[in-house]
Write a structure and sequence with these properties.
About 40% of the residues lie in helices and about 15% in strands. By secondary structure, the protein is an alpha/beta fold. The protein folds into 3 domains: about 5-165, 3-Layer(aba) Sandwich (Rossmann fold), CATH 3.40.50; about 180-380, Rossmann fold; about 450-645, Alpha-Beta Barrel (TIM Barrel), CATH 3.20.20.
């Protein structure tokens, strides 16, 4: 994520002005569904816990720039107070001075909610005077109202001209989930389009068809598209005046590589009513005078197959009239199949989200978007003003020029099937944390991931990791390309198995198999010669450390193993500092000690080659890296990632390490 979030600044003692999306359904002053308020609690609690005060603003309904009592957010303040277990002051509609006075009373740990911002005339006009007034209420502006991010109003954009604008957690989650599936989805990408009108979603179809491998159509929009292709849809709901543009669009979209899939069967009814007569019919056999109100079971079965092979699924729009029980089976079956598929699943659109929840699998989807219109515009590829206004992370927050690397070293563990199963589970784990590899803003864009596996598992992994962005490496190799070296594996063979990295000089090879620096040096030169990136391990034993020889040992190993390697090649290499006493012992080096040694190694590189090489070469730490020490280690300026042994064997713990590292970046 390139946008600054509330994690990136000091909040203590500040008054935060938070734009939330509390546009909740209300009946007679009673909130009928508070999920939007619930979704905001993590951001609110975080800000309060960090020692800041909070002034929250939201809109409710469309009061058109004047106070209207039935759209007051006073009931929201009361409800929020209940959820938070602390008072929430309500700031009523009034003149600038009274609002400022009320807001400025808010101290660290206290919360106030401002009356519906759309009561003020300036709000929807993005009027600078009203923006300035709002900005005067806080020191920092946080926009967490993804649902309103497609609106350029004072509270969603204008305030950002006067105060630094940060993303809250909800906004961050939406940007990562929707942004990543749109910008760099993992393939196969399957898009499911349903809902009422094709004309509402033309932009979404065109944008996503250019990226997707499959696009599946259902709902009333599919009726229009099928009618455009000449099918007789009976009295089905279609947009009769849109048949020509629908046909044109289909023609355009069909030129691409995306496979367009229409229902093979439908549930047809003799009336638009819950108790209508209905029956399953082939898609081209809607009886005269009948209408299609849902997709049929054969369609659900066929789509389930497609979901089971998908890496990413985007769903917008229900596939039938899900509000009526007789016609909700299609949406239900599809939602359940998606949830069970193991793909990253992102649901956008108010009705599709409601249908997923009705099917009982809302919480099994990777992400349910909280924004209807906003998510549609994002899926169309549009830039949302409420996101554009958010500050970019500064230089210091942008990951170092050296992209951090998390390298798993499986050592002598895992059969081929265990390796495949690890990849499946890791992918699921990352998807559920929105860290899918390969997407911008997610783990792989700021982090490089590498698995160094036993030789026998390499081809299986090469297959399983395809298009995941995760690199593959081996744990050792012989320097010769081929020859009479019984039991050895050559760089050519590693290339052939899909490796791009190779670990060389691991302490277990040195200690147990007696490998010497000179032989390791031959391997480094050979790996480079065959286009493999060497991951060269160095490190001292406990005795050497106690004798105060840590640096001497490391520098000696480096000098010997890197003999004859060009400065350019060193710059592209990866070094791993692994104190031998920390490997597999559960005793990790202190983060500050690891940093000190790695800084010294970098200085040695600068002195031996030059500054440029020292700035480029990545230096990892290894030795009992675990989910609970990853964050502290990643915080160190010179540590560019980790070589992880035992804790990389389990997808859950490796996934948590990835998440921990990601949070630091
Ligand atoms: P979303 O909110 O997910 O973007 P839409 O608002 O486009 O979805 O569409 C939702 C509406 O489409 C629902 O009210 C549903 O009843 C209606 N719908 C879906 N399929 C049909 C159909 N075959 N005939 C009539 N209406 C349909
Ligand atoms: C490795 O190769 O990753 C190191 O030897 C560290 O192993 P550990 O994380 O199990 O201590
Ligand atoms: Mg809708």
């Amino acid at each position: 994520m390139t946008k600054k979030t509330i994690r990136d600044v000091e909040l203590k003692g500040k008054r935060v002005l938070l734009r939330a999306e509390f546009n909740v359904p209300m009946k007679d002053g009673v909130i009928t569904n508070d999920s939007r308020i619930q979704a905001e609690l993590p951001t609110i609690r975080y800000i309060l816990d960090k020692g800041a005060g909070l002034v929250i603003m939201t809109h409710l309904g469309r009061p058109k720039g004047q106070p209207s009592p039935e759209l007051s957010v006073e009931p929201v303040a009361a409800h929020l107070a209940e959820l938070l277990g602390r008072p929430v002051a309500f700031i009523p509609y009034g003149d600038p001075r009274s609002i400022q006075q009320a807001a400025h009373k808010i101290k660290p740990g206290e919360v106030a909610l401002l009356e519906n911002v759309r009561f003020w005339e300036g709000e929807e006009k993005n009027d600078p005077d009203f923006s300035r007034l709002l900005a005067s209420l806080g020191d920092i502006y946080v926009n967490d109202a993804f649902g309103a991010a497609h609106r350029a109003h004072c509270s969603t954009v204008g305030v950002g001209y006067y105060l630094p604008a940060l993303a809250g957690f909800l906004m961050e989650k939406e940007m990562i989930a929707l942004g990543s599936v749109v910008d760099a989805p993992r393939h196969p990408l399957v898009v499911v389009m349903g809902g009422s009108k094709v004309s509402d979603k033309m932009g979404v179809i065109e944008n996503l068809a250019a990226k997707a491998d499959y696009m599946l159509f259902g709902g009333a929009m599919a009726n229009t598209l099928m009618a455009a292709q000449g099918l007789d849809m009976g009295t089905s709901k279609i947009e009769a005046d849109k048949l020509d543009i629908a046909r044109e669009m289909l023609k355009e979209v069909a030129k691409g590589k995306c496979k367009l899939v229409f229902p093979v069967d439908l549930v047809a009814a003799d009336a638009f009513a819950e108790d209508a007569h209905h029956q399953v019919v082939a898609a081209d056999k809607v009886p005269e005078g009948w209408m299609a109100l849902d997709i049929g079971p054969a369609t659900v079965a066929q789509w389930t197959e497609i979901f089971n092979n998908a890496a990413t699924i985007i769903w917008n729009g229900p596939l039938g009239v899900y509000e009526m029980e007789a016609f909700n089976q299609g949406s239900k079956g599809v939602a359940q199949a998606m949830a069970a598929s193991g793909a990253m699943t992102v649901v956008g659109g108010g009705d599709a989200v409601a249908a997923a929840e009705q099917a009982g699998v809302g919480d099994q989807m990777t992400h349910l978007s909280t924004g209807g219109g906003a998510s549609l515009e994002l899926l169309e590829g549009k830039k949302l003003p409420g996101i554009q206004i958010l500050a970019e992370k500064e230089e210091a927050y942008v990951p170092k020029v050296r992209k951090p690397l998390l390298a798993a070293n499986w050592k002598m563990y895992k059969t081929q099937e265990e390796a495949r199963s690890f990849v499946r589970q890791l992918h699921k784990q990352l998807a559920s944390q929105l860290l899918s590899a390969g997407a911008p803003g997610t783990s792989a864009s700021v982090l490089e991931l590498l698995i160094c596996a036993p030789y026998t598992a390499l081809p299986a992994l090469n297959e399983a990791l395809r298009s995941s962005g995760v690199q593959l490496g081996a744990q050792n190799m012989h320097p010769q390309a081929q020859g009479a070296f019984t039991g050895e594996i050559s760089p050519l063979m590693l290339q052939d198995s899909g490796c791009t990295f190779v670990i060389l000089g691991h302490s277990e090879r040195r200690r147990i198999f007696g490998e010497q620096d000179a032989f390791i040096n031959e391997k480094v030169l050979s790996a480079l010669n065959y286009g493999l990136t060497p991951l060269l391990c160095i490190g001292e034993t406990l005795e050497e450390r106690k004798a105060g020889n840590t640096k001497k040992i490391c520098f000696g190993q480096l000098a010997a193993c890197l003999a004859g390697v060009s400065p350019e090649a060193v710059a592209g290499m990866v070094l791993a500092y692994e104190p031998v006493w920390a490997i597999g012992t559960g005793v990790s080096a202190k983060a500050s000690d690891a940093q000190e040694t790695i800084r010294a190694i970098r200085k040695w590189v600068a002195a031996t080659y030059d500054d440029q090489v020292a700035r480029s070469v990545r230096i990892l730490y290894g030795g009992s890296v675990k989910p609970d020490n990853i964050e502290e280690l990643m915080h160190q300026a010179d540590i560019d990632g980790m070589l992880i042994g035992a804790a990389s064997l389990d997808p859950d713990s490796f996934g948590r390490i990835i998440k921990g590292a990601y949070l630091v970046l």
